[in-house]
Write a structure and sequence with these properties.
Aspartate Aminotransferase, domain 1, 3-stranded antiparallel β-sheet, single chain, alpha/beta, globular, 8-stranded mixed β-sheet, binds pyridoxal-5'-phosphate
Length: 377
């Protein structure tokens, strides 16, 4: 059986978790959380990184920091995970979904302006598969219309756009360390702040709305409730797991990329023959091998291919059901313009097994079975 995903595990996780326990500091903001925060800040040139309990929670923090209120609008792609928009709906925003580009499956930057109204507050970009959105264009639009940009960089750790790390480009961003992502802590994430004016408030929101972080730095002599907030601080046990992975970030990244290119090379013939489409990576984007997807001719072919792969003990999965077509999506948002690509391309997309430690032999097997399906063996 070739699994679709196996949670990343390096080996040092046990030692670091043991250290956290031995040092009698297992709640949040201990040595491992600081190590992780500093690593992101230095490696990715981010003003402030704070580990959170999930990417979903980091996005909720962004929505509070952005002062999203009832009646505000945010612009987002419909082809994404629910958390991208749920965080803003929770604050009362209406979501204006726009279509994607069929080449990268990212938000079509040329459609953003058509969705802007006097109520628009923010643009939420999603770097699908760790391939960057067209950020220069998007940031220019945001400056012209005085809007905030928030990067959902859940899939973008170690990816870059014109040499700049994803998560370091917009005012705020979020990473995910869920077990399906490139680096994991079980459940967890990080909020990334590139504008100093948000840092103090972010620390407060993350600490249940109190100025406890200042208290621990001896900047105030007691701490109290000063703002909105919740419990967004992860345990040191989870941070210890993540630290082991960040120390090996390069190895993990190289391993994923090697398998990604094996798929890409191995499936070229089928792509040239017009049987399927392969991912496109613009030249200004360095990606991180987060997802390898193919696009079948149509939904029926994809369904048959999934069954065929399953029969050959290979687990391949699809996503996302476009948010604007979902029950909650209709309640809390609306699609602006034509859905030319979101539905049609999401129905064709299939993700192949890809995780740290997947063997090249296994990739070869998957390629072979796909070729067999199309009668090319
Ligand atoms: C995984 C993912 C999330 C949610 O991450 P969690 O850490 O599980 O909350 C949000 N957005 C995108 C694009 C994702 O891929």
């Amino acid at each position: 059986m070739i699994s679709f995903n196996i949670a990343p595990f390096i080996g040092n996780e046990f030692d670091y978790i043991k250290k956290a326990i031995n040092d009698k500091k297992i709640c949040g903001d201990g040595q491992f959380t600081y190590k992780c925060n500093n690593w992101f800040e230095e490696k990715f040139r981010i003003k402030k990184a704070l580990l959170t309990t999930s990417c979903t929670h980091a996005l909720e923090m962004c929505a509070i920091l952005a002062n999203i209120k009832v009646g505000d609008e945010v612009i987002a792609p419909s082809f994404t995970f629910v958390s991208t928009v749920n965080a803003f709906v929770l604050r009362g925003a209406k979501i204006k979904f726009i279509d994607i580009r069929p080449d990268t499956m990212n938000m079509d930057e040329d459609l953003i302006e058509s969705a802007i109204t006097p109520r628009t507050k923010a643009i939420i970009v999603v770097h699908y598969a760790g391939v960057a959105c067209e950020m220069d264009t998007i940031m220019a639009i945001s400056r012209k219309h005085n809007l905030l940009v928030i990067e959902d960089a859940a899939q973008g750790v170690m990816s870059s756009y014109k040499g700049r790390a994803l998560g370091s480009i917009a005012e705020m961003a979020a990473f995910s360390f869920h077990e399906t992502k490139n680096y994991s802590m079980g459940e967890g994430g990080a909020i990334l702040l590139n504008n100093k004016s948000f840092i103090e408030r972010a620390e407060i929101i993350r600490e249940k709305g109190t100025d406890r972080s200042k208290f621990f730095r001896d900047q105030v002599d007691k701490y109290s409730w000063v703002d909105l907030g919740s419990s967004y601080l992860p345990s040191e046990i989870n941070a210890a797991y993540l630290w082991a992975q960040l120390e090996m970030a390069k190895e993990i990244n190289n391993n994923r990329l090697a398998n990604w290119y094996l798929y890409n090379d191995g499936l070229q013939d089928l792509a040239k023959a017009g049987q399927l489409e392969l991912p496109f990576v613009p030249k200004e984007c360095q990606h991180n091998g987060h997802i390898f997807y193919i696009k079948a001719k149509d939904l029926a072919t994809r369904t048959k291919l999934i069954k065929f792969l399953k029969y050959h003990e290979i687990s391949a999965v699809f996503h996302y059901v476009p948010l604007h077509s979902a029950k909650a999506g209709k309640l809390y948002g609306e699609f602006v313009g034509l859905d030319k690509f979101t539905t049609a391309h999401s129905e064709r997309l299939l993700r192949l097994p890809l995780y740290y430690g997947l063997e090249p032999d296994e990739v070869t097997t998957v390629i072979h079975v796909i070729k067999k399906f199309f009668g090319y063996t």
